[in-house]
Design a protein that fits this description.
alpha/beta, seven-stranded mixed β-sheet, five-stranded antiparallel β-sheet, about 25% strand, elongated
Amino acid sequence: MSFPAIPYRDMRILYVGARVVGYRVLESLLADGAQIVGVLTLDETKATATTAYTPFDKLVQHHYLEVRKFINLRDEEITAWARELNPDLGIVVGVSQLIGEDLLAVPPRGFIGMHPTLLPEGRGRAPIPWALIKGLARTGASLFYCDSQADTGDLLAQCEVPVYYEDVSATLGSRTDDAVIELFRGNLPKLAAGVAPRIPQDECRATVWPLRRPEDGVIDWNRSAADLYNWVRALTHPYPGAFSFYRGRRLNIWSARESADCRRGQPGEVLAVLPHGVLVACGQGSLLLTNTTWEGDAGDDTGFVALQPGWALDAGGSS
């Protein structure tokens, strides 16, 4: 469907956002002079430790924006409010809920969503941790036209984002956020001008990454040191962290690195306590734990627990 061209700054935008990335994109759009006629942002009562909740209040108040907080985007009151705003376009960033068909139909130019992978690869949840867990050398950022399913709509634009060996979820997430901001800057004027591309996703290349839960962070010491390094760096702050157990007590592991130490033992066996960390045997190689805490201990996660050589870390009875 084609639309008549309108000046970019005259295009009325309804913005739906949550998390740090949602805040950053909205901040960028406002700085570029976009006309944001309304903002839907996540109600703080629905925030959890794993959603990286970020309040939008300061930004909204500074720019005198119309705002509604949502729990369920399918509420009829939200759709009615959106219709009153008469938006030309909707943008949704950092929100895991699917937008219902009634709300999708409100802006004539539809809704543009974003996903921090090279769609159709990596549809679904937890795309930043999964990119690290899988040891990818590159991921990406994609803008797409929202439909009734998750991450399946036609592509507007995308770009590659490198993944570095030292990355953790926070650094990779910040880099993909930067890429998303640039994609919006480059493509919203095309949407206003009626010349934006619309590229169907190749379903033959589609992959779906599953939802991750905090309890999924348990370490399998039978895996290689390289795999477990990726595991730890993917799940560290702002996520709940990778963990193991010693005699039923949970040990949170916030950072680690692969070790070239030649000592070997049974997977999960503490091999040595060294000046810069605790050396633990893996299925292949060994991992140096550099930042650990016992569950429930107070502290700022800047050191490591001095475990004892010979101790056997395990999955808490699940393996």
